[in-house]
Specification:
about 180 residues, alpha+beta, elongated
Length: about 180
């Protein structure tokens, strides 16, 4: 079973769904009226577009940013599948600061609080991964999750993440020692 450690920013996703819902409702209202066929075509296209976009946003609404399953920390920083990193490779979580990467940011110096995961330097295969830049960055053994697109980042959240990481690491280490005996 997947254990969710960090959720997405549901407020932003819900706000994004509002105009798409209105567009779909407008398209549906036009289709219910007896209107010229060209207007019906435009209304149908609006309805299809809004339903497709709402479906994608609905999937993002319930998709975490970080989760744990079967000895792996899952980083959801790509469009499709999470990047599964063995829990032994993840050393710690801490807060950082970096560019917000907002689509409508007027100033290039817009900053956001970010969550950073430090990975073991010995695990060179995890040094760099390609991720969606709006969601984060993965380079030099550090995974940065942009705070703009996840739940509010606090010191308590970071302590909870590190505590859970430590508990799971110890549990897996103890299981490994028991199987060797």
């Amino acid at each position: 079973m997947t254990e969710i450690w960090l959720t997405s920013n549901r407020r932003v996703i819900l706000m994004s769904m509002l105009p798409l819902g209105l567009l779909g409702a407008l398209g549906l209202a036009i289709l219910w009226r007896d209107t010229p066929s060209l207007l019906n075509l435009v209304a149908t296209l609006c309805l299809i577009f809004s339903l497709a976009m709402l479906t994608g946003l609905l999937l993002q609404l319930y998709r975490p940013r970080i989760a744990y399953r079967d000895g792996h920390v899952l980083f959801y920083l790509q469009a499709r599948h999470p990047i599964a990193v063995p829990v032994q490779v993840v050393e710690a979580f801490f807060l950082g600061q970096g560019p917000a990467h907002l689509p409508v940011a007027t100033a290039s110096n817009t900053k956001s609080v970010n969550l950073v995961a430090r990975l073991s330097q010995r695990a060179t295969e995890w040094t760099h991964k390609d991720v969606k830049p709006a969601l984060g960055q993965w380079s030099d053994g550090y995974v940065t999750i942009r705070g703009t697109w996840c739940e509010p980042l606090t010191g308590e959240l970071v302590r909870r993440l590190n505590r859970r990481l430590s508990e799971i690491s110890r549990l897996l280490e103890n299981e490994g020692n028991e199987t060797q005996q």
